[in-house]
Design goal:
With 97 residues, the chain is an all-beta fold. The chain has a domain of 40 residues. It contains no helices and 3 strands. The protein has a 3-stranded antiparallel β-sheet, with no helix packed on it.
Length: 97
């Protein structure tokens, strides 16, 4: 699986403000950006031996507000509910060859 996590400077929380997330997905490379700054690049050669690069076919975009899991962890007594996710816009470009 190709993935990339990021942290904000000074320990700021992502929930404290709007942020611009971007992904450039081209043949053989995926780049992740946060607020206009590149923070991760992945290529098939970065994957463990025997792992197939599956990002060479169409996918779809899914935005969700997941609770629990490996990041940021399962809810506890300090977790506030209900939670919301506010999306200002989604923009998709198709770079023509």
């Amino acid at each position: 699986m190709a993935g990339a996590s990021s942290k904000l400077p000074g320990g700021a929380r992502f929930a404290g403000d709007y942020h611009v997330y971007a992904i450039e997905w081209e043949k053989g490379v995926i780049r992740w950006y946060l607020d206009g700054k590149l923070y991760q690049t992945r290529k098939p050669s970065d994957l463990p031996s025997g792992t197939k690069w599956v990002y060479d076919r169409p996918f779809f975009l899914l935005l969700n507000l997941a609770v629990g899991g490996e990041w940021p962890g399962n809810p506890d007594d300090t977790t506030l509910f209900p939670q919301t996710m506010q999306v200002d816009y989604v923009r998709v470009y198709d770079r023509q060859s």
